[in-house]
Design goal:
- By secondary structure, the chain is mostly beta strands.
- The protein has strands at 3-7, 10-13, 18-25, 33-39, 46-52, 57-60, 68-73, 78-83, 92-99, 113-114, 118-123.
- The strands form 2 sheets. Strands 2, 4, 5, 6, 9, 10 and 11 form a 7-stranded mixed sheet that branches. Strands 1-3-8-7 form a 4-stranded antiparallel sheet, with no helix packed on it.
- A hairpin with a 6-residue loop joins strand 4 and strand 5 (46-52).
Length: 124
């Protein structure tokens, strides 16, 4: 069965950086849309960044444009999220997700596979 496992979360000062990784197993996700979502306490899960490996496209929510970068390593079947200039409002559990076909990057219901999440905490 396909599985996504996130890693790389932790505690960082405002202005610092973290690099999250999403390791996929059970199948190749080369033809899937891959995305990062996040969920802060008391809030709904929100889209952060996405990529479609097969067509080389990326998409970011406005609040992280210029600060976050999504990328992938096809040989390792792994997707990354480089997070720079972190802000306290970036604090959340970050989730990796995958979808073979989707109409919207941001719609949670479009995604077929989810990781269990990794905690990112940004202190002021």
């Amino acid at each position: 069965q396909a599985q996504l496992v996130e890693s790389g979360g932790g505690l960082v000062q405002a202005g610092g950086s973290l690099r999250l990784a999403c390791a996929a197993s059970g199948r190749t996700f080369r033809n899937y849309a891959m995305a990062w979502f996040r969920q802060a306490p008391g809030t709904e899960r929100e889209f952060v960044a996405g990529m479609r490996w097969s067509v080389g496209s990326t998409y970011y929510v406005d609040s992280v444009k210029g600060r976050f970068t999504i990328s992938g390593d096809n040989a390792k079947n792994t997707v990354f999220l480089q997070m720079n200039s972190l802000k306290p409002e970036d604090t959340a559990v970050y989730y990796c997700a995958a979808r073979l076909s989707m109409a919207s990057w941001v719609a949670v219901d479009e995604y077929d596979y989810w990781g269990q999440g990794t905690q990112v905490t940004v202190s002021s």
